[in-house]
Amino acid sequence: MISGVAWVFGDDLNTDVIHPPEYFSLDPERVRQGLFAKYDSTMVSRLRKGDVLVAGRNFGCGSSRETSIRSLLLNGVGAVIAVDFARIFFRSATNNGLPCLTFADPADLARVPNGGRVSVLPDQGLLSTIDGRHIPLEPPGRFVRRIWAAGGLLGLLPAR
Question: I want to staple 85 with a disulfide (CB 3.0 to 4.6 A). Which of 21, 73, 90, 98 is the partner?
Fold first, then answer.
């Protein structure tokens, strides 16, 4: 189970907003500090391990760079729930072990309280709010669940 605060965004949240190019670096701390730096410079200091990003359509559009996903992971984001994802972002996030799930009913986005506590059961495809609302998510396939459980695609490779 993933548990934390819901950070709710709108549609078309692109990777340059998630992680601006000037924060690209091999230094993990620099990458971590770049998360939403131009959108909300205080967000990194307020994020807690397990927090959940919730958004509308086309989350992660704009780029194939993995720095946005790396920054989300370095900041402890537990999952991203959206109406839908840019395909390349979804695949890259999955390959890096970051759970990304979609709403079973896109209208349920409006039921998630910004700043409210939520719990996500990724394997069952369920998001629950602190006030007892249960919001169904599209359950992930078995192979995607295996990738998440392994911490990313590389975790499925045999050890040598």
Answer: 90
